[in-house]
Amino acid sequence: MNTITKDFFAKYASRETFEKIIDFSDVVSMWKHSLENFGSNVAIVDNGVEYTYTQLEQDMAIFRTVLKKYGLKKGDRVGILIRNSYDFVKAYLASVTYGLCVAILPTHLNEMAVFGCSSAFSLKAIITTDELFGSTKMVSAQNPTINIILVSENSAESTDFVETDGKDACVIMFTGGTTGRSKGVKLCHEAVMQGTINGCYGYEDVFEQRYLLVLPLSHVFGLIRNLMTSLYTGSSLYICRNNKDMFKDIAVFKPTFLVAVPALAEMALSLSKQFGKNMLGSDLKYIICGAAAVAPYLVEEYKKIGISLFPGYGLTETANLVSGNVENFKKPSSVGVPYPNQELKIVNGELWLKGKNLMDGYVDARDNETAYEDGWFKTGDLVKFDEDGFLYIVGRIKEVIILPNGENISPAEVESHFNELDFVQDSQVFEDVDDSGRHFLSLEIVPRTTVVANIEEMDKNAFMMRQLEKTNLLLPSFQQVSKIVIRDKDFERTPSMKIKRYKKC
């Protein structure tokens, strides 16, 4: 069993910063604190328009009146179907501070999926925009008791906050797993706030910073670590509406913090090397990287250009953050140390959790039957701790390959050895079968083009293959791969940029 207290993180921050990290049990209490301390600060920048914390609250107060007009009351569930924008922030915070539970609907959902969610989540209303209004037509046709509210609706009156408790329902989010069907995760105010505050630990200064938002707010990493921690710390959040414009936005806004998935960090690094300048700007201090495995190469290469990249680990079910790597340069392969107010233990290699950041269960009660045991949430992740208490992800139980000889193979564990080669950007180990029906392990890699360009050998593929085969021979015989393929294009990926695993043979 592993527990770490808040005081552990004091040495990684200035005294002034650490003393500002205050626990709040609910989003309303946090928001009141941010208004009082940062009211005149710019909270959101969207489409070139700046909105202060005070202006955001004024717009929220008007929209709370709109919600009241539709007869909504504390504890009701509403859906939000809005792209990343100021409108999303206004609708989300107005709803939560009015005591509603918000189901965040990914904007790629079609009419039938939106209707299915409205029924499965027992929604009383869906808040959307003119652009996405068409996606709610089936809801209106099949269940007209569900109100469709346009986020542009206005009122001449303002409505104040509703008092909330830490145990009150706050948000429902979709899981973003690479396997199995999506599930609705119920997070209470206490869980959302613990995840939000966890995002403050491990930095010299985290208050009144500049964040860029490129992740979807329908993903827990974007909502909690990007939006909520930004608002908690009195920081400014610049909304990048089109990822193709990301580097233009960076040049204008000059962020100090970037929350990113590894594929995005990899792309920015590659372009920086290609054009000979830091594409992320001279003001960027930190990259918080997660939602997929982070290559140690990224930590080491960003250090060379003066940026600290911090790997972390979390789940939708844990309000995003379980651990963060505060010793990223010393232990670049680790996902860090566990954050406060949670308990961790390993059972047969699997990480089990309890704590304030844990969900209240899945919306469909049937999904909870296998998710818990003796009050512990079973993550499905295979992990290990080192002697200093730092956590490492070894793989996923669902991805374990059982070979005909009875050996259990974690693909992620085998991949980690090949990923240490600087020319390997991504890799996938999977169970393969030949024409005779023999089962064996295969490896495919996506090479890192900026590194390959500097390989002096005439036959670059032959050089890479030799290094891969050398690494392969260092593995235990049961983990060695029998076939290696160097790909000329990326793997297929999920919306959260995780590699889609090949189906088992």
Structure report:
There is one protein chain. With 505 residues, the protein is α/β, with parallel strands linked by helices. The chain has 14 helices and 25 strands. Strands 2-1-10-9-11-12-13-14-15 form a nine-stranded mixed beta sheet, sandwiched between helices. A six-stranded mixed beta sheet has the order 6-5-3-4-7-8. The two termini are 36 Å apart.
Give the gist of this structure.
This protein has 505 residues and is of the alpha/beta class.
Largest sheet entry: 9 strands, mixed
Helix content: 25-40%
Radius of gyration computed on alpha carbons: 23 Å
- Structural class from helices and strands? alpha/beta
Average pLDDT figure:
92
Question: What coarse outline follows from CA principal-axis ratios?
Answer: globular
Distance, first to last CA: 36 Å
Count helical runs.
14
List the helices and strands and how they pair.
Blueprint: H1 15-20, H2 27-38, E1 42-46, E2 49-52, H3 53-69, E3 77-81, H4 86-97, E4 101-104, H5 111-120, E5 125-128, H6 137-142, E6 147-150, E7 169-174, E8 184-188, H7 189-198, E9 210-213, H8 220-232, E10 236-239, H9 246-253, E11 257-260, H10 262-275, E12 286-289, H11 296-304, E13 308-313, E14 323-324, E15 337-338, E16 342-347, E17 350-355, E18 372-373, E19 376-385, E20 391-396, E21 401-402, E22 408-409, H12 411-418, E23 424-433, E24 439-447, H13 449-452, H14 460-474, E25 483-486
Parallel strand pairs: 1-10, 3-4, 3-5, 4-7, 5-6, 9-10, 9-11, 11-12, 12-13, 24-25
Antiparallel strand pairs: 1-2, 7-8, 13-14, 14-15, 16-17, 17-19, 18-19, 19-20, 21-22, 23-24
Helix pairs in contact: 3-4, 7-8
